[in-house]
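User: I'm curious what two different proteins look like when written out as structure tokens. Can you demonstrate?

Assistant: Sure. I'll show them one after the other, since each token string lines up with its own sequence. Here's the first protein:
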Amino acid sequence: MNAATKIKSALVFSLALNLFFVAAIGGAVLRWIIVEWMFEEQSGQQHGMRFVTEALPSEQRGAFRNALRAARSESQHDVQAAREGRREVARLLSAPVFNPQDAEAAAARTRAADMAVRSRAESAVISFAATLSAEQRQVLADALIQHGPLHVPASSPAAPTQLSGGAHGGNN
């Protein structure tokens, strides 16, 4: 092999290696940009009562958390009953011999426990709201709509307008 061929081979190898590095760095940068973009998109869609507390003024956060903590501690029995009920429903649904009455009874017990938990949480929020001024209640309501249980996704259909008429009922 002569010197010119060795130099050409080295240049081709160097070019291929540099191209590989440029592609790797470009891919990493692109992935980083996409991940950052997705994180920003999701950050506006955070839901849960902990995000509701962040919207409240600092002096009210502690009182709101305490009210929710008290409701949660009062609901521990119902939370456990609902969890066990879901396990029971799953077990009954997968049993070799299916008994619809037993499955419905287990589902009803689970539903009742879930509703008891929800009722306590809602009562705690309402009791807390009763201690606030109108402006503070508006902040709470806005936070509950944006992050909490009052949130309705923008893409969800408006139930009242669909139920009032439509193809299957109403006064046609």
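Here's a second, unrelated protein for contrast:
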Amino acid sequence: MKIKSIKVIDGKNKWSESKDKLIHMVLDLGEFEEKPSNKIEGFYERIKEHLPSLQSHRCSEGKAGGFFKRIKEGTWMGHIIEHVALELQTLAGMDTGWGRTRGVKGQKGVYNVVFNYVDKDKGRLAAREAFNVVNDIIDNKNPQIDNIVKKLKPKTKLQESIRKVLKEELNEVRVPRSERVELYKDDNIIVVVPLTHRALQKYAHQCQWCINDDIHEWEDYHKGKHAVIIQRNPKKPKIGITGNPTASEIFLLAKWDNNQSSFEDVCQMLDYEFRNDRTMSDYYVTISNDINNFATNIVYYSPETGIYDQEDNFLWNFNIEINDIPNVKPKVIEIMDDYLTEEE
């Protein structure tokens, strides 16, 4: 099975006269078009074990337990994913309960899975997590329902306030001089070499590559070997045709260009349907040839291992050198290179 697309509907639509906030997922069942639930050994027992609360789903039977009856007798995976997406949202405290699954005309095994949401981002996530949960149950794996529900729970105003305060504290906290070297500072940029993992988190906290998951690599890869270049007057990120920042688009399109992700997967991750490989390739070439489309408000630099932007784009792959980064003058490059290549 694979997800072909996930889109958010907010307004009048063809699926429902009463529901205007809907997630529309197009799902290709692949081999499971010929394998409804009653033909997958143990599926019925396992889904009851992992999601017992589905007992409340009445489905077309019109009574509690009706959906489980449909699974036992045999129903298709698109229908099951629809119900699981609704239940995951319900378990996370969001009042949902409307859904429809219908075949795409003229495409065997391809289905429109439509269900309502409260929060559009959580609704999109529920679609992907429901797909993952059902696949885990098919493969006799243990889906981590509690963790998924935690991810889906909408943030309260208090949580958002705490998050804002913590972010402000992180921005204000001063890292002791013993934990960083400030190589250069002017009205436009600051250049810092972090000497501790805490300093790396402080100065590069907005970056994808940063930071929270790479502590095990700190001594070998990061410590004293990279400079963080911070623009003091950061620019707003450019937004591309998919509605995502262009730097994010480049990162995902590069995975497709390097055969690390499929055309369909990239369309799904960007939540945008390119017409074909050619249009995707043309767009990728266009945006990746302009440095303004990269996330250069903070970059991570080593004269030996390269340059990364905030989205983890490896800039040397795009023929971008350190002197192309805004406000990085020859004098600054000399200072960085002298320090970073100095033998211990």
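A detail about the second structure: Residues 208-213 have pLDDT under 50 and may be disordered.
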